[in-house]
Amino acid sequence: MNALDHLIEALRRLPGVGQKSAQRMAYHLLQHDRAGADALARALQEAARHVRHCERCHTFSETALCKICQDTKRDARLLCVVESPADQAAMERTASYHGYYFVLQGRLSPLDGISTREIGVAPLLERATDGQVEEVILATSFTAEGEATAHVLAEALKARGLRSTRLARGVPVGSELEYVDLGTIAHALVDRRPS
Ligand SMILES: [Zn+2]
Questions:
Q1: Domain boundaries, the chain
Q2: Which of 49, 51, 55, 141 sits 20 to 30 Å CA-CA off 62?
């Protein structure tokens, strides 16, 4: 395989990128944007080398603890569970939540072999039972898999004597949190209900 084919193969690893778009990206970079190609290569290498997961909430971080977990002014009684760093960023942009987070590695999907182990339920339960958390807000997406994930988490938390709530139904069914408008998320948060 030559260098061009290698590049196209590598680009195809990105979500939603098929053979054709990978080809288009590769041709564009090599024909029109060599400086961009260099910058992209460097940025990828830097990120792959330095970005890891926060020890406490598992979001992306370049330090052992992320900025939010380091912030002692947040409400330690609240723990919001999301599916991805992108969903966490969406919650943060609403500026209406001031507790801490736990970021799962996706959501349950038994058909794809993604179980409680893959998404990190055990570390979540450990984090939630630190003695300070009083309410776990389940902010997984409103897709069938996101709902199933919230249900499993609610049962596991209940078995450990922890209270959990779910975002209210204002969020359209089938939505990924990161694509929902901020006002809707903020309302869903205020109107959260016992799960
Ligand atoms: Zn963190």
A1: 3-50, 74-166
A2: 141
Segment 142-167, tens digit of pLDDT? 888 999 999 999 999 999 999 999 98
Domain boundaries 3-50, corresponding CATH code: 1.10.8.420
pLDDT class of 113 with cuts at 50, 70, 90: confident
Distance 36 CA to ligand 1 centre (A): 32
Expressed in angstroms and rounded, the spacing between residue 138 Cα and the centre of ligand 1 is 17
State in Å: Cα 118 to ligand 1 middle.
19
DSSP 114: B
Cα 9 to middle of ligand 1, angstroms:
33
Class of domain 74-166: alpha beta
CA–CA dist 124, 135 (Å, integer): 13
